[in-house]
Amino acid sequence: MRTPFMGIEIGKRALMAQQTALDVVGHNVANVNTPGYTRQEAILAATDPYASPGAVGHIGTGVHVTDIRRIRDAFIDMQKRTEIKRLGEFGTMSAAFEEIEVILNEPSDSGIRSVLDKFWESLQELQSNPESEAVRKTVRESAVTLAESFNRTFRQLEEMRADVDTSVRSKVVQINALARQIAELNVEITNARSAGYRPNDLMDRRDGLLDDLAKIIDIRISEENSGAARVTVGGVLLVESQGAVEIRVREDGDGLAHLEWPGGLDVNVSSGEIKGFLRLRDEYIQQIKTDIDSLANSIITEVNTQHALGFDYHGVAGSASFFKGTGALSMAVDDAILGDVSLIAASGNGLVGNGDNALAMAQLKQKLTMSSDPLQPPNATWNDFFRGIVTGLGVDADHAKRMAKNEDYLVNQMENLQQSVSGVSLDEEMTNMMKFQHAYQAAAKLITAADEMLDVLINRTGITGR
Amino acid sequence: MRITTNAMARNLLLRLDTVNRRALEFQEQLASGKRINKPSDDPVGANRAFRLRTSIAEVERYVKNVGDSKDWLLATEEALRQMVDAMHRVGELANSAATSTVPASSLDAIAKELEQIQEHLVFLANSDHGGRFLFAGQNTLTQPFTAAGPAGVLDFGAIQREVGPGQTMRINITPEFLDGPNSVLALVPQVSSLVKAGDFKAVGDMLTAIQAETDELLSYVSETGAKINRLDMISQRLTESNSSLTRLLSDTEDAEFDQIILKLSQEEASYQAALAVGARLIQPTLVDFLR
């Protein structure tokens, strides 16, 4: 049997439900600019109907809020994280390539190509004027500039490689900090869930941290039944409901950092910023360093060999070597020649007016001395080889730049999709606000109506004849 | 697709950012005047520019070598011409001394002049170019001749200059023609002493030898002249290839200003359009219309 108080109860339920919905609208509006915020929605449902014996059908009992739902598409999240890790990898490389391009400083009139050309030119000049001390000094100075260019380039590459290694280490620190925070949130989320709450905002925070982590290293994420996120890297567990595993840094013989799990197993990194850093350190920078080094080594050896065949200003044979050192870093003009330019062996037969050996040294630039494959006979001149280094760098840098741009675009696309699902639209919230506001007003009216009805029943009924 | 408030703001920012980035690229090209500022701007073009720059440096080197060589040859030609002139005079004097009617006083004067000519010839044989002796082989810093003949052992080494890739040219005349009993330097003292001795017949016999030496000198003059001509031709060719290489380099790496400025103004227009659209769309929401 229905009671007259039923109307008040329905009204009260409606008031509470609409108010909760309005609060959710308020929360959305308040967080319209919060990064990583997912819009929420109060799910309204009719309460269980009431079948009163003898009455017709079910009688409704009002409304309640069954859930406050986070509106988010897990598939877009996954896709976005796939692109984010690639953006991390190529973004890192593209920025670093720009730095390498600055170090090599080509094409320009002050890079290694230019000082190398100037060195050959000075030797040609020496061939024409083997008697001139001024020209000999020019040869010495251009050789010093050449050696210093090699020294500087190599040192800068080495410093850059060390910087990249430092970045790897700081990224490991970041990974561990993020993993710890995610594990902490996991605990809070599972606790809230087991108490029957929906920890929407905590989940937003966790999603944000997962995005940050995905940018650094490629992770796979799955959600456990408890609501905890389970994160693996290369198939090995990083975070689960129980906590996070700490990735450690192991130093190899050269003092370079490698990632390993507590058990000593190497971390299998296949993408993300850290992969970008590792590729730069172990592939690109290393390759350019090796190439520059072998170029310098070849120049030192060949020039010295030819120089030893000549005669100096005084007609003395092979009295000093021209360059000393064995590679780009140690390359320098020999001390004896630095002190006395007459020791430069320009002459081919001991006569002062003969510049044949200077010419022979200058013509080394046309000799095939370098080979990109050590097993093959030399097939490139020094100039070709260095040009190859620069062009290779250009191609790699261009590729990284394009990839970074593409990934940036894709991540944006994904973020737009995410926004279109999860972002707060003020227009929509205002519309909802009005909707719930009207419903609230109407519910209040309903209570007033029930109140008036009860007033009639209680205060004005049965007073006939009083 | 749901369009949210922030998505519009974000997209506007992104669009402005993209336009600005492109404008920056054009700006960089305009400021440096170069289309390729880094190898990654155009790896293929950078490769070409790299090769062209080296070729230009080489050509410039050859141009300088050709110029130096030409100076050396001009100095040589001048010295040889003066020797020829001197030998003509020697021939004239010998001719006039070869007749019996010449009085003894004249013979004396002729012998004196021949001695002067001999001194001049030694001076010419010691001609130098920038402190380097022209007729000393590769021993360029040691004076090759004295009044008495060669100062020491003469060197006959050739001085070669590279005037093109793998193309060398000998620029010195080695001093064989100044050495030995029949050389220019040995001939004149002989004539002079015969004149002094008044041996008309012997002086007359010398005339052929004098003519032969003069002819040899003339052949050296024409050889030198021919080399100078060849150098002029090489120089012209080098200048041409230098200018075509420079043009190629410019085509490869220089920015085309009118095109870039045009593109830049297009970017400017789309930047302003994006700003205008943004200003109109970002501002209002439903809030503005609720009371």
What does this structure look like?
The complex is a heterodimer of chains A (466) and B (291). In chain A, 59% of the residues lie in helices and 9% in strands. Chain A contains 10 helices and 10 strands. A 4-stranded antiparallel β-sheet of chain A has the order 3-4-5-6, with helices on one face. A two-stranded antiparallel ribbon of chain A has the order 1-2. Chain A has a two-stranded antiparallel sheet with strand order 7-8. The two termini of chain A are 30 Å apart. Chain B has helices at residues 5-32, 43-97, 104-125, 184-197, 200-253, 257-282, and strands at residues 128-129, 132-133, 145-146, 149-150, 160-164, 167-170. In chain B, the strands form 3 sheets. In chain B, strands 1-2 form a two-stranded antiparallel ribbon. Chain B has a two-stranded antiparallel sheet with strand order 3-4. In chain B, strands 5-6 form a two-stranded antiparallel ribbon. The chains are: A alpha+beta (466), B mainly alpha (291). Chains A and B meet through helix 2, helix 3, helix 8, helix 9 and helix 10 of A and helix 1, helix 2 and strand 5 of B.
* Number of beta strands of chain A: 10
Distance between the termini of chain A: 30 Å
Oligomer: heterodimer
Could you spell the SSE succession of chain A in H and E letters? Answer: HEEHHHHEEEEEEHEEHHHH
Termini separation of chain B comes to: 29 Å
Low-pLDDT runs of chain B? none
Shape of chain A: rod-shaped
Going by CATH, the homologous superfamily of the domain at 52-249 in chain B would be f41 fragment of flagellin, N-terminal domain
Largest sheet of chain A: 4 strands, antiparallel
Would you tell me the overall average pLDDT of chain B?
A: 89
Q: What gyration radius of chain A follows from the Cα positions, in whole Å? A: 39 Å
CATH class of the domain at 52-249 in chain B: Mainly Alpha
Number of helices of chain A: 10
Instruction: Strand order, main sheet of chain A: write it out.
Output: 3-4-5-6
Supply the helix-strand structural class of chain A.
Answer: alpha+beta
The helix/strand order of chain B is HHHEEEEEEHHH
- Rg of chain B (CA only): 39 Å
Major sheet characteristics of chain B? 2 strands, antiparallel
Query: Pairing-aware structural class of the strands and helices of chain B?
Result: mainly alpha
CATH arch. level architecture of the domain at 52-249 in chain B: Up-down Bundle
- Strand percentage of chain A, roughly? 5-15%
